[in-house]
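Lab notebook, bench 4. Still working through the backlog of constructs that have no structural model yet. Next entry is a single chain of 504 residues. Request: give me the structure tokens for it.
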Amino acid sequence: MKKVAIVSLESTQIKLTLATILDNESFVVNEVYTEGTKIAADLASDSLIKTTRINECLLSLKSFKAIIANSDVNETVAFASFEFLDAKNQKSFFEELYSQTGFRFSLLSKDEQLMNSYTAVINTLDVPRGVIVNITGTKTQILCYNRRNLLSQHNFDFGTCTLAEEFVKEGVKPEDSIKHMYDYVYKHIKKLDMFKELEADVSIVGLGDAYLSLGKLARRLKKNPYDRDHGFVLSKNGVDEVYDFVKTLDLDKTKKLKGISSDRADYLASGLAIIKAIQDFSNIGTTTVCATNVTEGMLFNKACPLTAEKPLTDILGYSLNAQNAYYNNYSKNTAHVYELSLMLFKQLKVLHKLSRTYVKVLRVASTFHDAGKRISANNYTKSGFGIVLNANIYGISYREQVLASFVVASQKLEDFSMTDWVRYKDIVTEEDVEAVRKLAVIVRLADALDKFGRNYIVDISCDILGDSVIMKTITTSPADMEIREGIKLENDFIKAFKKHLEIL
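Model written out:
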């Protein structure tokens, strides 16, 4: 296990990411610090980074250096976006940064930037076919892939700042400015052939501040209570709604938008112009927001070098293993609880009638079934709700993570809160209420059948006879104590499945 610090320098922000590389070839991001910068404006005007920007950059980096010094970091990596290839004074700029702070930045090429972004996307999102769009202050990169095979890519010399510098002028109405930017981008996008042979289920995967802002505003407009960036999916109409909402706002009003920082506000309209132009021309129906990027791509390559050659085959499993390893495998029997949960899910299918789409929910809930004990031994199911809801889990959808949170919180059926449930009514369905209750009983029963972490019960078969379920266990050693714990849950089993429970 080692602590890694990654300092990333882009034209609109400087970011410090502290992460732990684990012994099981996974990683966990611990802290992220971000400082805004206006270097993009210099690159857009005359490609010379001004002294003022350099001094601001130095102050941010010195702060980062102090944080690193106090964080037991074993390795520090510093890289700069390929945008800086355009800077006329790049050599003196990076020499100054090194002499003043000790950070020696490696300057990424276009291909290196794109491949690290691709690595981050393909190993954190379950999107088999996608068009990755990475929007920075001065550039826009597009990459098409199909089932983890790269198809085509293209780089454009425009970004949020370059468009704003050219088209946002004093005296010009905001609606006219954003339309001019949209037309400019659309004119360049329509020259591409890469969208012509895409299949119907392709999703745009959006990276960068523009897409993060898009997701935040979409959730605000819908009053969505779950403010998770990564994996948030918008329909074409959802993108249009945000675009239409923003297009008439001047900069003062934009800066007052909740959830949008002042740094992002300057380039919100230009970012949405790029997003909408690409969406309209490609005619792709969904957009998935990706909160990972080059930094995470580098972390994957450091933690699990195999990802440099081929993507992970089990994104969710990798992510859950990372969480378990980081928290010192808090639940020693987590893996076995999931195995038993899956057995019960299959054996009781005739009763619960749930589709396999709930298996991911079951997997997350069984992994985190007692994670709340890190906070409270008595109210661990309620504490677990917040842990799962806010955990950085990859390979799971927005809805699935919300459902898994409720399953963890409802292992004691009396703890299920309809008041909390109603808050998420636009994410979950009425049918999900019963699904959560049934899954919660399955997870708790699985935990009871391995209460002492001995793995004695290795298989389960269920017979449904009249108003009873006869659960037969196959054991490696006598499991009387585990069976006794399982029988204690008969009342909850009756509530969920309308059957009595016998365990043999």
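Notes after review: The two ends are 43 Å apart (CA to CA). The longest strand covers residues 27-36. Flag for follow-up if needed.
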